[in-house]
Amino acid sequence: MWELLKSYWQILRRPSVHYSLGFLTLGGFIAGIIFWGGFNTALEVTNTEQFCTSCHEMRDNVFEEMKTTIHYSNRSGVRATCPDCHVPHNWTDKIARKMQASKEVWGKIFGTISTREKFLEKRRELAEHEWARLKANDSLECRNCHNFDYMDFTRQSKRAMEQHSTALASGEATCIDCHKGIAHELPDMSGVKGW
Amino acid sequence: MKKHLLIAACMGLLSWGAVAESLDAPAPDGRRLGGTIAQELQAEEMPKVENKDLKRERNYPEQPPTIPHKIDGYRVDTNSNKCLSCHSRSTAAKSQAPMISITHYMDRDGQPLATVSPRRYFCEQCHVPQHETPAAIPNTFKNIDQVLEGGASQP
């Protein structure tokens, strides 16, 4: 075994006989680009609403419910898609979330939420993960579109203005504290703070 | 035989004409003005929900107050009750919304409960928002003050 490893090492160490150093460097560079590009393309593809709703678990449950809400259909025609709210923009966070999502694909293969009933049973747990994530990052995904600095309170309803100019402005509460269930139906809320 | 058939056919045609006419009778001028029953008219513009956050006067003390804000997307079902996330006893302080009154905590025997009574859970059964539009149908409703002023004898 040791001998084998040593012989491979020898091959790696030996200068190339057939290919020039330039070719090897350039080849490695190009291969790197292709690999990196492919990786990011795969990331892009999996970062679309089409991909998210290609499995029936998402299409029949959360997507269907979202269609009646403000982020799907509204007067201005500006929309939020699944990744807008669920996938961080920052690269490292994105990769972290994607790795977490791989576990969800695992769940798909083994049918953890393959029926509406199973989904509803799991819903509280899934929702809590999202609440915890948004609470921890100060509702970063909401703020990617809704920038507090540019909110004109005078153009908001009185109820909105009163809450936004106090609890939100002081940092005491973040978007998800007050706007749970903004895009989907809610799970059983017994025991959740403020409900 | 042939004659019978002919008569039947004529009668059929005649009654069909009568039915067709009665189906397309002029419509009574109620909610929908003009036209005949079968005619499709241009739908009226949908009025906006009034969202001024100003409480409205109640017509009599037991009237469920109308909702002074919009309630788009507020779900009330077995899992969650968005209204109570502002109007319940425990959340009213934070939201500064009026707390639902004690009657909402009473069962049918008038016994106050610790949480909202099941018969008061579905808020929109009694409370509705209002639209920015004049009354759809003129009416002779009198509020409690007008009734008191007018005396008991007048309807």
From TrEMBL, chain A:
The protein's UniProt keywords, in alphabetical order, are: Cell membrane, Electron transport, Heme, Iron, Membrane, Metal-binding, Transmembrane, Transmembrane helix, Transport
Any single GO BP term = anaerobic respiration
Q: Where does heme 1 bind?
A: C52, C55, M58, E104
User: Main subcellular localization, coarse class?
Assistant: membrane
Membrane topology, as annotated: Single-pass membrane protein
- Residues given in the record as heme 2 binding sites: C85, H86, H184
Q: Does the keyword Electron transport apply?
A: yes
Q: Where is the NapC/NirT cytochrome c N-terminal domain?
A: 15-189
Q: Which Pfam families match?
A: Cytochrom_NNT
Q: Which cofactor does it need?
A: heme
Any one annotated GO CC term: plasma membrane
In which compartments does the protein localize?
Answer: Cell membrane
Family the entry assigns: Belongs to the NapC/NirT/NrfH family.
PANTHER family found in the cross-reference section: CYTOCHROME C-TYPE PROTEIN, CYTOCHROME C-TYPE PROTEIN NAPC
Its recorded name reads: Cytochrome c-type protein
Automatic annotation (TrEMBL), chain B:
In the record, what terms sit under GO molecular function? metal ion binding
Q: Which superkingdom does the taxonomy of this entry point to? A: Bacteria
Keywords of the record, alphabetical order, are: Electron transport, Heme, Iron, Metal-binding, Periplasm, Signal, Transport
InterPro entries referenced in this protein's UniProt entry, alphabetically: Multihaem_cyt_sf, NapB
Q: Which residues form the signal peptide?
A: 1-20
- Segments carrying the region annotation (Disordered) are 48-74
Question: How is it modified post-translationally?
Answer: Binds 2 heme C groups per subunit.
Indicate, by first and last residue, each region the UniProt record lists as having compositional bias (Basic and acidic residues). Answer: 48-60
Q: What is its main location?
A: periplasm
Q: Where does heme c 1 bind?
A: H69, C83, C86, H87
Where is heme c 2 bound in this sequence? H104, C123, C126, H127
Its annotated compartments are: Periplasm
Give any single GO term for biological process.
anaerobic respiration
Family classification: Belongs to the NapB family.
Oligomeric state and interaction partners are given as:
Component of the periplasmic nitrate reductase NapAB complex composed of NapA and NapB.
What does this chain do? Electron transfer subunit of the periplasmic nitrate reductase complex NapAB. Receives electrons from the membrane-anchored tetraheme c-type NapC protein and transfers these to NapA subunit, thus allowing electron flow between membrane and periplasm. Essential for periplasmic nitrate reduction with nitrate as the terminal electron acceptor.
Identification of the protein by name: Periplasmic nitrate reductase, electron transfer subunit
